[in-house]
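Problem 12. The chain below contains 259 residues. Write out its predicted structure in token notation.
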Amino acid sequence: MSAELLASRREATLILTLSNPGAKNALHPDMYAAGIEALSTAERDHAIRAVVITGADNFFCAGGNLNRLLANREQDPSVQAESINQLHNWIEAIRDCPKPVIAAVEGAAAGAGFSLALACDLIVSGASTKFVMAYVKVGLTPDGGASWFLSRALPRQLASEIIMEGKAVSAARLQQSGLVNRVVPDGHALSDALDWSDELAALSPNALENIKSLLREAPVNTLPQHFEAEKQKFVESLHHADGLEGITAFLEKRKPHYR
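Solution.
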């Protein structure tokens, strides 16, 4: 069986499942293209309110396939460069997706699989899951934005340790560092992520989209620039139908119903 990204739905949630039997769901360019297309579809489909990315068979992702990398060494360097470009396009699509994206991680998230989880807005992890940036163990360097994500989310010393040593880090330690949102009993990451996505689906889609945009822009904005961005988003949200419904529902002491 080949590597593929399986798409399914549960109510308002799009579920994307990494599947590469026998290779611990190692990544493949076919997955990147499918992921970009799936997120594009989710953006256009107003019935989809959230996205969950998980791995088949209670294992998230082993990262890149080393046999494929060896084969790429026999090709022109542009072949591997193009493959990484496709991965980065998928990572960027996750970041740019206007819907909340949750990673449901079991077993391990290694290499680019770790990068994939980091690209998501929220991370739910099984208790014994290991996160590892093992590139250095095979003489390689990170891709998928790993060094960018970790250097911004963690103190420099901890980010350096994770990437330079290439040793596995527990979900509990990453939760303590604020990188993992929830640690749940093994086998429950997907169900917890889906329950969380249901909660998010009941909130204003417009507000969530604007919040995600603000969070994405914040690291590169000066404070005055961000004041301006917040002002624009607030005014836009107030005059959006979701703003009217949210305020009215609160004043009427009922649950809002966003379309």
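Discussion. The chain has a mean pLDDT of 96. Students who got a different answer should revisit the alignment rule from Section 12.3.
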